[in-house]
């Protein structure tokens, strides 16, 4: 197997991609939930810009994670993991990765349909993915909203599963991905 040794967990690069993505997603979700209630003005415009920039960075990191995972599969699960958990784990990880791509792309589509071009970090203008269209904007806004809540729920389940494995099962699941641990 070309992946990390199961005893040591994931490779440092996989850990870096995971935790960088996790921190950015938490920031993006926090800014996203906060910004919608702001009155129109410069703080709101900056919040929307940062939200978009972080979202696009999450897309890039997620694509890098997928490339890494293709080249270096994850270590096998410990023997203490039950059969139903072994069947469920790949599906939940796939759903998380799909949401990490779909959520920012839906935001980019929504911006395009709303007539607001996306310029990554104010430096790299990105193409509008769809023409300006108010009805499409409304549909994409609803989609973006529901994808955000789906991501929040799935992340909460992911964290709950990690806590269950680490605190109650003591089977080393968290230590496999924990930063600064071998």
Describe the overall structure.
By secondary structure, the chain is an all-alpha fold. It has a single domain (12-177), classed as Fumarate Reductase Cytochrome B subunit. 69% of the residues lie in helices and 2% in strands. It contains 5 helices and 2 strands, in the order αααββαα. It has helices spanning 12-35, 42-71, 83-113, 134-169, 173-177; strands spanning 119-120, 124-125. The protein has a two-stranded antiparallel sheet. α1 (12-35) packs antiparallel against α2, α2 crosses α3 and α3 (83-113) runs antiparallel to α4 (134-169). It is elongated. Residues 1-6 have low confidence and may be disordered.
- Number of discrete helical segments: 5
- Calculate the terminal CA-CA distance, rounded to whole Å: 18 Å
Structural class: mainly alpha
Uncertain runs are 1-6
Write the CATH architecture name.
Answer: Up-down Bundle
User: How can the largest sheet be summarized?
Assistant: 2 strands, antiparallel
CATH class division: Mainly Alpha
CATH topology: Fumarate Reductase Cytochrome B subunit
Shape: elongated
Q: Give the strand order, joined by hyphens, for the main sheet.
A: 1-2
What's the mean pLDDT score?
90
Strand content: under 5%
Q: Count of DSSP E strands?
A: 2
Helix content range of the residues, please?
55-70%
Radius of gyration: 18 Å
Instruction: Give the helices and strands as they follow along the chain.
Output: HHHEEHH
Domains counted in the coordinates: how many?
A: 1
């Amino acid at each position: 197997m070309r992946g990390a040794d199961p005893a040591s967990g994931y490779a440092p690069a996989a850990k870096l991609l995971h935790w960088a993505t996790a921190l950015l997603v938490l920031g993006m979700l926090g800014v996203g939930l906060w910004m919608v209630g702001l009155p129109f003005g410069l703080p709101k415009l900056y919040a929307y810009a940062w939200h978009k920039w972080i979202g696009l960075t999450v897309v890039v990191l997620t694509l890098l994670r997928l490339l890494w995972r293709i080249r270096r599969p994850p270590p096998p699960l410990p023997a203490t993991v039950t059969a139903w958990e072994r069947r469920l784990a790949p599906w939940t990880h796939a759903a998380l990765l799909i949401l990490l791509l779909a959520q920012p792309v839906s935001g980019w589509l929504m911006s395009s349909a709303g007539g607001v071009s996306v310029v990554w970090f104010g430096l790299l203008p990105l193409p509008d993915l769809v023409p300006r269209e108010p009805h499409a904007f409304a549909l994409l806004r609803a989609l973006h909203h529901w994808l955000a809540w789906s991501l929040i729920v799935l992340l909460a389940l992911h964290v709950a599963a990690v806590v269950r494995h680490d605190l109650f099962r003591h089977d080393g699941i968290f230590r496999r991905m924990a930063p600064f641990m071998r």
